[in-house]
Amino acid sequence: MQLESENQKIKIVSPAILSPLSRRSDKAGLYIHFPYCVSKCGYCDFYSEGVGKNGAIAQNDLFNMYKKELAQRIEDEPSILDLEFRSIFIGGGTPSMMDLEEFESFLEYLRTTLKFRSVTEISLEANPEDINTPFLHQIHDLGVNRINVGIQSFNETFLKAIDRYFEPAKYSKIMQILHDSPIERFGIDLIYGIPGQTREDFIKDIEHSLEYPLKHLSCYSLTQEKGTKYSRDISEGKKQPPNEELQVEILKDLPSILAHYGLKQYEVSNYAIPGFECRHNLGYWAMDYYLALGPGAHGYIQKGRYQNPRNMYQYLRGQYSNHYEKPDANTEIPLNIFRLFYPFNIYSYFEGNSEILEITKNLVSSWRDKKLCDFDPSSGIFQWRSQAIVNLDGYITEFASAIDKK
């Protein structure tokens, strides 16, 4: 396969307002899970292995196994080759720790194996400690056109509270470095609800983030995930649980706060300048297919959903999942599409089922009458209003219960 680019690099995405989303069966995203970190954050529920700052890790073996898994997925479901891949997302772990020569070779393998859109989003997650100007130019030259940096907080006290590895000197310069980067599509992550954190503390983090024009901001509430070190520390009385009262307050106020800076909410936790949304994640919530490679990775292809074991050593021995499970659309659709604060065609998700379409039309029309959403019954275009955010789980449950009783 040849990409439509003079230098065989995937083109940079130009900012543009996207049209309403709809259910698509011919488009897909590709997720690559890079499992290594300097150290495991206490709150993190994603699969990762802390290896230290200079840890010796067998990256060649890992990238070779990505190729083997991809070949197996194609053998299991040959129609993968018919999909148009619109995005690649390298998550983790800490992908900014990758060996860039291995990464470059792997990208070339992907380009000759799968069918990509000529304008493809390639996102890479990074930690501030790995970011510098030469690194950003290197990954840009490889085709990375979107980067997301896990800052979490600029306050040293709160970084320590969540067992976050950090280098203070890096945090003080990171926004300037990103602003000067050749990668125009950059964003950061922040966390709120950390024990001891106040509303004013979190607003300071936002204000510092926006001292330079920021295209994308993810704001996540701290959660107590079962099995994490943070959860165990709470159970043992070593740490305090998340500040839920603060979380509700911030969740409610963020849309108006960030709108002042031109950042619009397009998903529960994500805000962007229009046209700079993460297209890969939009594909998840719109229920596009996505191929996922790596230990602990979850995928969704025509054959069904699958999840690889959360074990690096099993993965390197070729022990990844061959179990595919067809999703229950009536359950999964509400849990995904209603996370979006972006416009979408709700009818496209229930085509051919007149009974569910009628239930959908009646229920969302009642939400519209309560000024919770905008909805056009003739076209099926739906979009939440910001005031729906506080009770969003309740509305999702209401919709799921309504179609479950059909």
Query: Judging by the overall fold, what is the CATH architecture of the largest domain?
Result: Alpha-Beta Barrel
Shape: globular
Low-confidence stretches: 1-17
Total separate domains: 2
Q: How large is the radius of gyration?
A: 21 Å
User: What is the overall number of helices?
Assistant: 13
CATH superfamily of the largest domain: Aldolase class I
How would the blueprint of this fold be written?
Elements: E1 27-34, E2 36-37, E3 49-50, H1 59-76, E4 84-92, H2 100-113, E5 115-126, H3 133-142, E6 146-152, H4 156-161, H5 168-179, E7 185-192, H6 199-209, E8 216-221, H7 229-235, H8 244-259, E9 264-267, E10 270-272, H9 279-285, E11 289-293, E12 298-301, E13 304-307, H10 312-316, H11 329-337, E14 344-345, H12 354-369, E15 373-376, E16 381-384, H13 392-404
Parallel strand pairs: 1-4, 1-11, 2-3, 4-5, 5-6, 6-7, 7-8
Antiparallel strand pairs: 8-10, 9-10, 12-13, 14-16, 15-16
Helix pairs in contact: 1-2, 11-13
Describe this structure in words.
The chain is globular. Helix content is 35%, strand content 21%. It folds into two domains: 27-285, TIM Barrel; 329-406, no CATH class. Mean pLDDT is 91; it is low at 1-17. It has 406 residues and is an alpha/beta fold. It is built from 13 helices and 16 strands. Helix 1 (59-76) runs parallel beside helix 2 and helix 11 packs antiparallel against helix 13. A nine-stranded mixed beta sheet has the order 9-10-8-7-6-5-4-1-11, with helices on both faces. A three-stranded antiparallel beta sheet has the order 14-16-15. A hairpin with a 4-residue loop joins strand 15 (373-376) and strand 16 (381-384).
